[in-house]
Write a structure and sequence with these properties.
InterPro entries: GMT_wHTH, Tcm_partner. This protein is of the alpha/beta class. It has 16 helices and 13 strands. Helix 15 packs across helix 16. It is globular and about 65 Å long. Bound molecules: S-adenosylmethionine.
Length: 388
């Protein structure tokens, strides 16, 4: 796609994507600020674009600045520690971004790779084309927490190795664009095998190919690919991978265009991201949230398999935790590897089990007033769940 076409107008899907990132930015800065003893934290956007669409709608970099400007406490934290690194291979776009950032009063803009010493709120702007060894070296050297957003048009530059480099650092998370529409056919295409292996791994690619032979519908195929992605990017369910699916319409039906995928080691981060995504989604499946663009004629095609998924979760909970008692927080952190349900949704699933007499909730007896009320919030903060 040509840059000038993409940035003409913001689609609903692009807005949802930018909201996922900018809403999470707020949480990340709060979490990281509270815990890190590093002098700096950095927001990294390696495919940043101009910050604004031609029709003046704001995209991710500008929405992030709006977020900071709208919250005094957040800005105070930013002014203490935050750095920005925006990269885009197209210098025309980074020039536009610079102008956009200047309207936010950002004065410390350096057209150079990130380096310290520098002042908080310094913006570094570069024009590397990914994949890039220099980018990888720079990321490797950054010795402070990172929130990275990787949003290419295709899948050029996205690799498990790069994402590991980011997420392996303390308090560092990554949000990336997974181009399902392009990767799905690429799985069968020997000419691009190298690129696909960088995303799925050679074993993952082999597994996907084998499993795809058993699938009969397009949706089954998609879930198999997603399942392998989750397994691989979560390092076999040892960190959290939260996918958000975007659908588009062809003349007759809906089909998946891409996913936005969040990777984190932090259980609070996955909890909050699931809440952010669930507010922006029109359908929740066991493995993903979905944004289905409005199209009244086709709304009956919305896929809702949540009831079936919830039954599966109940069954797994009863098998895994039989006879055990644990805090709801711990239970949610353990379960978070396997599905995208929010704390509220998990609470509802557990309430069903409580009604069936299979689970007992408890809150500390000393609590008074609202703290004694059995709610998802209270149970998460201080409650226990016993599987009988
Ligand atoms: C989907 S757009 C990013 C949109 C942006 N994240 C936003 O929210 O406005 C992809 C951007 O990546 C840039 N780009 C394309 N190929 C690239 C590459 N190989 N390396 C770095 N940037 C690239 C394009 O110029 C384009 O601005």
């Amino acid at each position: 796609m040509k840059s000038q076409d993409f940035y003409m107008e913001q689609t609903d899907s692009s807005l949802v994507k930018s909201l996922i990132v900018s809403n999470y930015f707020d949480t990340w800065l709060n979490i990281v600020y509270g815990y890190t003893n590093k002098n700096f934290v950095i927001y990294v956007d390696l495919y940043c674009g101009p910050g604004e669409y031609e029709n003046s709608k704001k995209s991710t970099p500008a929405l992030i600045m709006d977020k900071l400007n709208s919250k005094e406490a957040l800005m105070k934290k930013a002014k203490n520690k935050l750095l920005f690194w925006f990269n885009d291979s197209n210098p025309i776009l980074t020039k536009k971004l610079t102008e956009c950032l200047q309207t936010y009063g950002l004065e410390n803009i350096k057209f150079d790779k990130p380096s310290v010493p520098c002042n908080p709120m310094t913006v570094f702007i570069t024009n590397y084309e990914l994949p890039s060894v220099e980018i990888e070296t720079l990321i490797r050297r950054l010795d402070f927490p990172i929130l990275a957003f990787l949003d290419p048009w295709g899948y050029k530059g996205i690799s498990k190795e790069l994402i590991d480099m980011i997420v392996n650092k303390p308090y560092s998370d990554c949000i990336f664009f997974f181009n399902y529409n392009r990767i799905r056919p690429a799985i069968e295409n020997e000419n691009v095998i190298e690129h696909v292996q960088k995303i799925l791994g050679s074993e993952g690619l082999k597994n996907v190919k084998e499993r795809l032979m058993m699938a009969t519908t397009q949706y089954q195929k998609e879930i198999i690919i997603l399942d392998e992605i989750i397994k691989y990017f979560s390092n076999n369910y040892r960190r959290y991978v939260v996918p958000f699916r975007f659908l588009t319409y062809t003349t007759q039906k809906q089909r998946t265009s891409h996913y936005i995928i969040f990777v984190t080691k932090n259980s609070t981060a996955q909890k909050v991201m699931k809440e952010i995504m669930s507010k922006l989604c029109s359908d929740t499946h066991e493995l993903h949230f979905s944004y289905i663009p409005p199209n009244p004629q086709l709304s009956f095609l919305g896929i809702d398999q949540s009831d079936e998924s919830k039954e599966k979760i109940k069954k797994r909970l009863l098998q895994t935790y039989a006879g055990k008692e644990l805090s709801f927080k711990e239970l949610y952190a353990k379960e978070g590897y396997y599905n995208v349900y929010t704390v509220d949704q998990y609470f509802d699933i557990l309430k069903d089990l409580e009604i069936e007499g299979k689970v007992v909730f408890s809150l500390p007896p000393t609590k008074k007033g609202n703290d004694r009320k059995l709610s998802a919030d209270n149970l998460y903060k201080m409650g226990k769940v016993k599987f009988v």
